[in-house]
Amino acid sequence: MDKSFSDPTPQHPSSRQPPRWADRLLSWLTPPDLLEELQGDLHEQFVQRVDQVGSRRARWWYGLEALKVIRPYYLRRRVARLANRQQELFAKRRATTRPYFTPEYPSPSLLNPDMIRNYVKIAWRTLWKNKLFSLVNILSLSLSMAVGVILFTGLKATFDTDHFHPKLNQLVRILTQETTEGVQTNWATAPLPLATQLDSVSFVERTVKLRLAGKYNLQTDKGDIPIDIKFTEPSFFDVFGFTLLSGNAQSLGNNSSTLFLTQKTAEKLFGSTNVLGHTVLVENLGYYTVGGIIQDPPLETHLPIEAMLSIRSAELLEKKGVISSASHDWGGFKSSAIYARLQSNSNAEQLNTTLQNYTQKLHKSQLQFLAQPLENITPGKIDLKNNPNAGTSWEDVKTQLFIILSLTLLAAFNYISLALARAFSRAQEVGVRKTIGATRGQVIGQFLMESTLVALFALLFTVPCVTILANYIPDMDDVIFSWDIALIVGLITYAVITGLVAGAFPAWLLSAFQPIQVLRKMKNIKLFRGVAVYKGLIVVQFSVTILFMILVVIVADYDRKNNAIINSTVPSNVLTLDLKGEKYQNLQNEITKLSQVETTLATNWYYEPLKMGKDSVTINNKTLAINYVSIDPRTLETEGVRLLAGQNFPEHMPQSTEQYVLVNEAAATLLASKSVSLVGQNLLLDSAFVQVIGILPNEIIGQQRPLLYRYLPNEITTLTIKIKPFTEIEATKAIQAVWKDYFPEKTANLYNVKAYRYSGEISGEMEILGGSALIVLIIAALGILGIASYSVETRTKELGIRKILGANNLKLVWILTRNFGVLMLIAGLIGVPAGLFCGDLLRKEMGSYLDFGLVHVSIAFGFVALVGLLTVLSQTIRAGQIEPVKVLKVE
Amino acid sequence: MSRTYLGEFEELVLLAVALLQQHPTGAYGVTIADELQQRTHRTTSVTGVHVVLYRLEEKGLVGSALGGATLVRGGRRKRFFTLTAAGHQVLREMRQLRMGFWEALPTPFFS
Q1: Which chain B residue has the Cα nearest residue A74?
Q2: In what residue span(s) does the Transcription regulator PadR N-terminal domain sit (chain B) (predicted)?
């Protein structure tokens, strides 16, 4: 049947129809109320055009025309329409009272540009009028936002990691999946022989072999500097975005004694980057010549580089037996990595299928291989071993987001409490607005605009502060503002969200006021039950502050005592010499003979562990993993450490088998119910029985942990040398000379124990706790400052009357301050137990020397309360200056 | 003149409306765009003409009504524009202003 007969409607050939996509585009872009006429006109014109210029050009023209609808005018009409629809959401409440005058037109909607301009204007005026409140709000918000901003830059760095490599989406890393006895482990490293096989795969453009050698000491004028070394081939610089400042990538392939350094490493080693041709001795590996300087990468990377050697050099070293053999051994996959650039990013799946053919069987395990796109490394989703620099995982990203959110909430607290405290004065304003015809939505919009403005100002304040801070605090190296659109948008979004969160609750409460109530008799009505909320907020803030302060005081006390102990016990004339894994008997004898030296001890323990091991201990069918140190039998005697029970190691210890062991008190209580009874018992240490012959007191320096003291001559890594007083310089020279005789290839690492190990002033805990305490204290103080100032302002009339009736200034200040004192006490009641609880957790971490005495707790509480009350007083003192005539003449 | 400011294109569109509303085809997007194209030899897009028309309508210089659906338009109606009294007034003032200038110019200027 012919089609044209069956269908009565005239058939346009498809070429006489405008393109479908353009029509659809048009119907999306055009405001619905204009669509009909516009589309009709365009269709009509299209038909004309087809006759004039042919269907192809007409269709092309039609598409262009449809796109032209994206003009400001049409967009504005769309927005206006959106705004109208949104206004329906906030429909005007059917007024039970008639507004003062009936508006002729419906009030404009929330998103109306004019209205928004108006909101900003009014918000600005309100902020300007209450300068103190605005300042307090901005300062406290910016303080808590600072931490958020720092975390935020960290997050951004995470997501930017490795984004400097060209053709990033074509790069993959080969992962190894090792299955041993049914247990599967994922490794971020891969065996080098696989790379040769990958080279033959058609869609693999280029591969890079990388051997991760780990840290080696480079000898410089400043002594040994440990540098992370990687072996690689010239293709590294082709595949990755690392660029050479000087030197030629090919030299890495041609010359096995070439060494590439990054800018940073070169600065560290030589103090300059202009060091091409310098020769350096790498401990154990030999001499290398600097053949190139690598530019420090602009972004974070999962593959941080310090120094690079040629992979050919690795093969030579393997032959010499200096490093483990991995080049041709599938089993050596844990110290090498393979990267590849594919022809296009769609090949990654294909590569995974190909890699299945290369599955390898080792004698105990099976290796399978996977390709991981470079982009998926940071933030990482899968659990990988040998992946130390992948940075933040997705889990951490989520945690950081959570922290940012809770900080935002904390920052919002101050704003909320201040806004609520000022609710009374704003109530009238709300009343007037509503009477004139504002909807609740508009009032909310007004308040939200104010809080958002405050948050944006706070952001303006925070960013320079953080930048300055980052320059002064060494640990904050990674806070770098790499300004780009994403960062700016992110920061502004963060500020806006902070503003909205802070403003939401006050806006919601304030906008609920009934005009008739607030305007009739302000003072008498109960505005809302929740006015006490701000008191609650003050209490929360101050109890948190007290909590932190208690911890700070306790830790500070601990530090002080610790330093005192160190000063009194650790002698200043003891040097330690790092043995670097060498046999030390002869060296020790030689050093002992030096005229400046009193005694030498080969020990891993000197009042605290210098190097620890861990082993399993079994006694009475109980198995525990306990740390141990290897100790010279003579140490206790020489240092005059007194045993709690039992006896010291015998004079002559058997060298070959271990027979005796000493334990400290903590270990003894862990192993036996009655610690003294442990002496003489046998322990199964790893797989051999040893006898406990004595119990030592706990360590007096540093952490207290259960510890075994063993005599394992092979594990000794340090020689402590006690020298005659005032001979340190000569002794150092003499010892270094002796060392040079024995081990000419290595430099001597010789330090004064006291100066080297105990010169740090503040412990890490102290820094973190002190910092947090300071921030929380400042935020709390700023919050209470605003509220105190407000409470004075609202009560001026009452105070004036009191003054007339004969109250003296002291009394007036007392009346105002009293309430805040009560709040402080309540905060103390909550904060002190919380502080003690957290301190107890800390004690488990740091040992039992933390002292929770009444003195410390009261110092902490007293300090916080004092700061709080002084802040309050700085405002309430104004009550004394009130002149009744001035405050009472109006009304 | 103090009341309304008209851009050049707006003025041309307004004139086109004045011209075409006498015409049997009426003044709507396509005819106006065609008229302008013929007379000015500029490429004029229908969407652009529409924007100007809506603006003129907002200023109260033209009025509009829907009607006249045809098959080529897929049954969609047209929006016919007509000059309002205010539009008339503005055009007349424009013309007077221009004429005033031309009359003030010396005659040799034309040669």
Answers
A1: B51
A2: 19-93
- Which tens digits make up the pLDDT trace of A820-877? 889 899 999 998 888 888 888 877 766 556 667 788 888 888 999 999 989 888 888 8
What was the pLDDT predicted at A472?
A: 62
Torsion of CA A126, A131, A134, A138, to 10 degrees: 140
Report d(CA A773, CA A780) in Å as an integer: 10
How confident is residue B19, by pLDDT bands cut at 50, 70 and 90? Answer: very high
**pLDDT value at residue B18:** 92
Which tokens go with A411? 């920052």
pLDDT recorded at residue A600: 83
Contacts of A127 (CB under 8 A, 6+ apart): A134, A450, A453, A454
CATH number of B8-103: 1.10.10.10
Helix (H) or strand (E) holding A308: strand A307-310
What is this model's ipTM? 0.86
With an 8 Å Cβ cutoff, are A73 and B77 in contact? no
Contact status of A40 with chain B (Cβ, < 8 Å) = yes
Q: What is the pLDDT of residue A11?
A: 43
Q: What is the mean pLDDT of residues B40-59?
A: 87
Name the H helices within A482-584. Answer: 485-510, 515-520, 533-569
Contact B72 A47 (CB under 8 A): yes
Q: Is-contact A302 A389, C-beta < 8 A?
A: yes
Chain A interface test: which of B35, B76, B79, B81 (most A C-beta within 10 Å): B76
Mean pLDDT value of segment A695-716: 77
Mutate: best of A20, A23, A37, partner B, most B CBs <10 A? A37
Averaged over A483-507, what is the pLDDT? 85
Which chain B residue is nearest to residue A38, measuring alpha carbons?
A: B47
| Interchain pair A38, B54: CB under 8 A | no
Instruction: Give the C-alpha separation, A66 to A24, whole Å.
Output: 9
Among residues 64-123 of chain A, which lie with CB inside 8 Å of chain B? 65, 68-69, 71, 73-74
Residues 6+ apart with CB under 8 A from B21: B27, B80, B81, B82, B83
Interchain contact, B76 vs A39, CB within 8 Å: yes
Domain boundaries, chain A: 15-70, 113-158+395-527, 168-390, 534-562+762-888, 574-757
Across the interface, of B46, B55, B66, the residue whose CB is closest to A41 is B46
Cβ pair A45:B33 closer than 8 A: yes
**How far from chain centre, in Å, is Cα A312?**
39
Contacts of B43 in chain A (CB under 8 A): none
Q: What per-residue string of b and e applies to A742-768 under the rule 16 or more CB within 10 Å gives b?
A: eeeebbbbbebbbeebbeeeebebbee
- Rounded to an integer, what is the distance from CA A734 to the centroid of its chain? 46
The domain segmentation of chain B, as residue ranges, is 8-103
What percent of chain A stands above pLDDT 70?
A: 86
Give the pLDDT score at A478. Answer: 54
The answer, yes or no, to whether the previous bond of A99 is cis (omega within 30 of 0) is no
Flag whether residue A17 sits within 8 Å of chain B, measured between CB atoms.
no
What is the 8-class DSSP label of residue A628? E
Q: Do A40 and B77 touch (CB under 8 A)?
A: yes
H helix intervals, A177-242: 193-199, 235-239
CA distance A309 to A306: 10
For residue B69, the chain A residue with the least C-alpha distance is A40
For residue B13, pLDDT over 90 is answered with yes
Give the pLDDT of residue A767: 67
Mean pLDDT across A92-118: 55
Identify the top-confidence range among A11-15, A99-103, A350-354, B88-92: B88-92
Give me the pLDDT at residue A89, please.
57
